[in-house]
Amino acid sequence: MARPDTHNPPRGSRPRVTHTVGEQRGEHINNVGRDQYNQYVQQIRQERASFLAAVAAARTRARRLALLGFLLILGGGGVYGWVLLRSVTSIFDTVSSASRDPDSDFSANIPDLLGEKIHGVPIGVLGFAAVAVGTVLMVIGIVMHVSTTARSRRGDTEFINALSMTPYPQ
Predict the structure, then answer these.
(1) Sign of CA dihedral 138, 139, 142, 148
(2) Structural domain contains residue 69
(3) Residue 122 has what DSSP assignment?
(4) Number of structural domains in the chain
(5) In a domain, 4, yes or no
(6) Is residue 94 part of a domain?
């Protein structure tokens, strides 16, 4: 007589599945099984999305700061250039009128190289200060942009490494 196969169930019947767990000890025990890795990947992707959103916001702030600095450089440079050109033109006018009338006293007509004063501060000093502040803001914005770009690259490699690891030791 043929011996029945004890490892394979007869055709048409479904094998009975049992899970028997004896005593378990440990700090964290997870018997989830097949869905555990999917949940881990979903959590990593959510963390990456929030990380990339924070990096994008920081990069936008950095760009705006650099743009503000650039605009301050342009505006302050324009004001300072206008004051200097106006002063040079005034000096040329004074020199040309002195050549026509050499007996006059022209020391009172020599213009101030920093321009007219607004509330006691020369316009040229305001333009120069705007250029200085704009330069500092632009440098800070560029440094912030470079550092956020480096953070996003580092985050990409960490994401790839996290997906290649399993959430539980084998």
Answers:
(1) negative
(2) yes
(3) E
(4) 1
(5) no
(6) yes
Residue span of the structural domain in which 106 resides:
58-164
Phi, psi of 169 (to 5 degrees): -70, 150
User: What is the Rg, in whole angstroms, of the alpha carbon atoms belonging to the chain?
Assistant: 38
Report yes or no on 44 lying in a domain. Answer: no
pLDDT of residue 65: 95
Q: 45-49 contacts: CB < 8 A, separation 24 or more?
A: 48/155, 48/159
Which pLDDT tens digits describe the chain residue by residue (170 residues)? 555 555 565 666 666 777 777 776 766 665 555 555 566 777 777 888 888 888 889 999 999 999 999 999 999 999 999 988 888 888 787 777 767 766 666 565 666 777 788 888 888 889 999 999 999 999 999 999 999 888 887 777 777 776 666 555 54
The residue to which tokens 């869905």 are assigned: 35
Whole-structure pTM over 0.85, yes or no? no
Angle, helices 123-164 vs 35-100, to 10°: value is 160
d(CA 161, CA 158): 5
Tell me how far apart the alpha carbons of residues 43 and 50 are, in angstroms, rounded to a whole number. Answer: 11
Cβ proximity of 76 and 84 under 8 Å: no
H or E element at residue 117: strand 117-118
The amino acid that residue 60 corresponds to is T
